Amino acid sequence: MITMRFVQRIAAVSCGLALALGGVVAVAPVADASPQRCFYYVLENVPDANPETVEAACKAGAPGGENAFLACYKLLRKDYVPAVIAANGCRRAAAE
User: Fold this and answer.
1) Which residue from 54, 52, 93 is spatially nearest to 77, judged by alpha carbons?
2) How many CB atoms neighbour CB 36 within 10 A?
3) 89: Cβ contacts below 8 Å, ≥ 6 apart
4) Model confidence, pTM
């Protein structure tokens, strides 16, 4: 006869396994998520910005580091994105 304790153990093992497998699967898209966060952040705050310029800037900032940040920032500022939004977007673009 199946007891309640056995059912609880099966549920706990199933949840633990799902979380473990889900954690492994969830790590893969993170590498591309940072430039996306930059892109959506900038366009949410400056809807008139050119999406192609914003995409190029966010991809330029993706490697991280000072040079990538400056490249991203300069591209966004050329498109008249306000300085604070450009800086915050470029920080979000850096894949860490």
Assistant:
1) 54
2) 15
3) 38, 39, 41, 42, 54, 57, 58, 61, 72, 76, 81
4) 0.65
The answer to whether 90 and 57 have CB atoms below 8 angstroms apart is: yes
CA distance 8 to 19: 16
Cα angle at 72 between 48 and 76, to 5 degrees?
25
Cβ–Cβ under 8 Å, residues 78 and 88? no
Determine the Cα–Cα distance for residues 51 and 25; give it in Å rounded to an integer: 29
For 33-81, how does the pLDDT look when each residue is reduced to its tens digit (9 = 90+)?
A: 589 999 999 999 999 999 999 999 999 999 999 999 999 999 999 999 9
Length of the chain measured in residues: 96
